[in-house]
Write a structure and sequence with these properties.
Blueprint (H helix, E strand, L loop, with lengths): L2 E5 L2 E4 L4 E8 L8 E6 L5 E7 L5 E3 L7 E6 L4 E6 L8 E7 L10 E6 L1
Parallel strand pairs: 2-10
Antiparallel strand pairs: 1-3, 3-8, 4-5, 4-9, 5-6, 7-8, 9-10
Length: about 110
């Protein structure tokens, strides 16, 4: 059974940085396109960015140039480096496969203060 465990969230001031981790077990992190998703308060969960099987990365416009998705195949972990954080980046961040989602993990809370 595939398990996804997100970590690395916290409280940070606007302009700060955080690096989120997604530890994958039960499958290889490189087996499928994997993405990061965010659920902001009062909003639906949205796709933020993803890394394809070939390592290509894609981002929603609001985070392009500030966030970077990467993975470490040896650690079976995907990362989200978030720089120049803004209050509107606040939310619970999740990782999952892009297509045919696995069960969602618990997510990790990111709070950006102004």
């Amino acid at each position: 059974q595939v398990q996804l465990v997100e970590s690395g969230g916290g409280l940070v001031q606007a302009g700060g940085s955080l690096r989120l981790s997604c530890q994958v077990s039960g499958t290889m992190v490189s087996a499928d396109a994997m993405g990061w998703f965010r659920k902001a308060p009062g909003k639906q969960r949205e796709w933020i960015g993803n890394i394809g099987r070939d390592g290509a990365t894609y981002y929603v416009g609001s985070v392009k140039g500030r966030f970077t998705v990467s993975r470490d195949n040896a650690r079976n972990t995907m990362y989200l480096q978030m720089n120049s954080l803004k209050p509107e980046d606040t939310g619970v961040y999740y990782c999952n496969r892009l297509i045919n989602k696995y069960d969602w993990g618990q997510g990790t809370q990111v709070t950006v203060s102004s």
